[in-house]
Specification:
The structure holds two protein chains of two kinds. Chain A is α+β, with helices and mostly antiparallel strands. Chain A is about 50% helix and about 15% strand. In chain A, helix 4 packs antiparallel against helix 5. Chain A is globular, with a radius of gyration of 22 Å. Chain A starts with a helix and ends in a 6-residue tail after the last helix. In chain B, helix 3 (about 50-60) packs across helix 11 (about 225-250) and helix 6 (about 130-165) packs parallel to helix 13. The chains are: A alpha+beta, B mainly alpha. Chains A and B meet through strand 1, helix 5, helix 6 and helix 8 of A and helix 6, helix 10 and helix 13 of B.
């Protein structure tokens, strides 16, 4: 049985299973829901409070960015891919830029690699703190949410100081970074990091001792690593199952070969271990930023930016805060890419998260589903799942065009 | 007769309690904001004091959407009825002296009925509105109610046993020397915990957990109906704080002896407000410092911890008397 057949079979079983349940047992979760910041739809089938099946339906935030990138030059494309995700925007531009660099012979200056590390780690801190705040929100602990987001402002201020922007940093460019570090930045970074170390220690104490948080996270979302690893999770979700995988160590980029991250793992594979792994990563990021800022070499921050990129296929990946972010770029020697394919960590993780939910109660949905730190805006690439027909297919641009023409012919719109 | 109607509808009855309810909402939002290092309501009135009033009138004038599959009669006329529940209950609370407006010999029994009826009204409203979130929410609401009713009644029994009376005015009267919170501290703590469950506040905001089931049984309500429901929830807040004041903190009485009737009433009013707002403030702080627990955890907490504790308190009272 080929892969497509088995997929179709499992989807048929799923849709057949849906019919036995009464409509009352089916609870819609999204596309607009207080727990989700972005539109995504999950059919949750319940027996009482217990979850039997979770079916994600993706595609609400699809904006055709992969196609749009092909219409832009290499430099313009950097700013477009950055807008795929607001939280890990630098990871997207960095992954794209590194993929393009792998096609050229230009060397990235050492100082630029250090600066890239600093920004990437600041972004990791900001992303992890944002997520931890949201854990507070999902468990109904609004005070924790507000406190953590207040502390996250310090990181955003630093990012603004260095790059000029808070969210979409527009900082990475092919062969380097766009601006040098401002003066006195070392002092600002050290102040902020000292403050953050203190706060992270406090939050560590809070999440590991506050009874209501512990009851909501400890042992929740447990999944057998043998089952989970077949669903290909990435990032903290994979590390909380005891697998020591981190692109920063496995395939170092930026300055990660000189400042080596300390990869934390856990074998609990529950939401509490996710929290602890992310907090440990924040601590590690603080250490790496301080190391990088004290040992930063002098020199240029970029070399000549090429207009065209030699013919070839490039692949690159970075460890975004949520996990491995993968880019494929094909160049035919022109001033714009011919094809760009992006695989974001959320797409890799979403099946694991839905699997983690089975057997838990409805109250666990927000904290487990979003425990993988989903970013649906990132995720919605060109995959179409039509559950009503029980089919899934990948559409290429040409097929989509034909499908569109046929649809309009069938519905008689084109003839009028 | 006219005095009685005035007392019932204006002071210290309906209107008075509605204004306290608005003040409570302001205090709740301001306290939460201070704890969470935000500013809270700011623009409407001095320090945003009229923000709850503004919100209420805004909701009143907004469009009311009636779901197609709802029970339209209950959906439209249920919220005002729900609103009447705590207002009637509040009329039993002694504010100016030792007696409330509607005081009679067994009024505590009626209060218990009112507390149960409020949950019943919520379930009826939720089922009338329909929707899956409401269905789940009401399941949780009723389960939570069955868990907290026993400790609620047991904790109310402590003042009853101490004063040997089922009348609120008798209970207040017998607290002239020493408040019952000193005789029955465990019962008071249980009452506060149970109040959080009754008010659907963290950690017991399970029936209206917004990240799970949107707004629970209130999801489908909008406009005028939602305004009534929100006001009722705030009134419940006031009602339970006032009840805690009456049962455990000596009602409106302050340890000052004044002969003049008018001044004594004014002092009593001040005492009532002070105590009620303190109890409310205590509840706000507790709820700000906790995360939501799950329904099975709430049930087991209420049955296995608060219920034996209330029994223990009753046992202590029986032994000591």
């Amino acid at each position: 049985m080929s892969r497509d057949d088995s997929l179709e079979k499992s989807l048929k079983e799923t849709t057949a299973g849906l019919i036995q349940y009464s409509p009352e047992g089916l609870v819609p979760f999204g596309p607009v829901h207080p727990a989700l910041k972005e539109p995504e739809y999950f059919k949750i089938i319940l027996e009482g409070e217990k979850i039997v099946q979770v079916i994600p339906r993706i595609g609400y935030a699809h904006r055709g960015i992969e196609r749009a990138v092909q219409e832009r030059t290499w430099i313009q494309a950097i700013y477009l891919v950055e807008r795929i995700c607001g939280i890990c925007s630098f990871s997207h531009s960095l992954a794209f830029v590194q993929t393009v660099e792998s096609l050229t012979e230009y060397e990235v200056p050492r100082r630029a690699r250090y600066i890239r590390l600093i920004i990437a780690e600041l972004e990791r801190i900001h992303s992890h703190l944002l997520w931890l705040g949201l854990v507070g929100y999902w468990t109904g602990f609004d005070t924790l949410f507000m406190w953590i987001w207040r502390d996250r402002e310090r990181v955003l201020d630093l990012i603004e100081l260095i790059t000029g922007n808070r969210i979409h940093k527009s900082y990475a460019t092919i062969t380097g970074v766009r601006r040098d570090l401002p003066e006195n930045i070392e002092r600002h970074i050290q102040d902020a990091m000292r403050y953050l170390t203190e706060r992270v220690n406090f939050y560590k104490m809070v999440v590991n001792s506050e009874a209501t948080i512990l009851t909501r996270t400890k042992g929740i979302g447990w999944i057998s690593p043998d089952v989970a690893v077949k669903l290909c999770p990435v990032g903290p979700l994979l590390r909380c199952m005891g697998f020591k995988r981190d692109v920063r160590v496995d395939d170092p980029y930026a300055a990660y070969d000189e400042i080596v991250p300390d990869v934390k793992t856990s074998t609990d594979s529950d939401v509490l271990s996710l929290i602890n792994i992310r907090l440990a990563e924040v601590e590690d990021s603080i250490r790496m930023i301080l190391e990088a800022i004290t040992g930063i070499p002098t020199g240029p921050i970029k070399t000549t930016i090429p207009r065209t990129v030699p013919r070839g296929d490039g692949m690159g990946h970075v460890e975004a805060p949520r996990g491995e972010l993968f880019y494929f770029v094909r160049s035919e020697g022109g001033n714009r890419p011919v094809r760009v394919k992006i695989r974001t960590p959320t797409l890799a993780n979403i099946l694991t998260a839905t699997e983690m939910l089975k057997g838990h109660t409805l109250a666990d949905v927000p904290v487990v589903l979003t425990g993988m730190d989903p970013c649906f805006g990132c995720m919605d690439r060109l995959t179409v799942i039509d559950l009503d027909k029980g089919k899934e297919w990948q559409i290429t641009g040409e097929q989509l065009r034909k499908y569109g023409i046929e649809w309009y012919k069938r519905n008689g719109v084109g003839e009028k | 007769m006219m005095t009685w109607i005035f007392q019932l509808l204006v002071f210290p009855g309906l209107t008075f309690f509605v204004w306290i309810a608005f003040a409570f909402e302001w205090l709740e939002r301001k306290t939460a904001a201070k704890i969470q290092s935000r500013v809270g309501p700011l623009t409407a009135g001095p320090k945003g004091l009229f923000q709850p009033v503004a919100d209420y009138f805004k909701l009143i004038f907004k469009e009311e959407i009636v779901p197609r599959y709802s029970d339209k009669f209950v959906f439209l006329y249920g919220p005002p009825l729900y609103f009447s529940v705590p207002t009637i209950g509040a009329a039993f609370i002694p504010v100016l002296g030792m007696t409330g407006v509607l005081s009679h010999t067994y009024d505590l029994l009626f209060i218990l009925f009112i507390l149960a009826f409020s949950v019943l009204m919520a379930s009826i409203l939720g089922y009338a509105a329909g929707g899956r979130y409401a269905t789940i929410s009401i399941g949780r609401l009723v389960l939570q109610y069955t868990s907290y009713e026993v400790p609620l009644i047991l904790s109310i029994l402590a003042p009853v046993m101490l004063s040997r009376s089922l009348s609120l005015s008798k209970i207040v009267e017998s607290q002239t020397n020493l408040w019952y919170v000193f005789y029955a501290p465990i019962s008071f703590a249980v009452f506060l915990i149970v109040s959080l469950a009754e008010l659907e506040k963290p950690p017991f905001d399970i029936p209206s957990a917004k990240t799970e089931i949107v707004a629970g049984w209130m999801t489908e309500f909008s406009g005028r109906a939602l305004a009534y429901i929100k006001l009722t929830k705030n009134l419940n807040y006031v009602f339970l704080s006032a009840l805690a004041t009456t049962l455990y903190l000596g009602g409106p009485l302050l340890p000052i002896n004044i002969q003049d009737d008018f001044i004594r009433s004014a002092v009593n009013l001040a005492g009532f407000l002070l105590k009620t707002f303190s109890v409310g403030f205590l509840i706000f702080v507790i709820k700000s410092a906790l995360a939501r627990i799950k329904i099975e955890q709430a049930t087991s907490l209420l049955w296995t911890i608060t219920t034996p504790l209330s029994f223990l308190q009753l046992l202590i009272i029986i032994i000591l008397r």
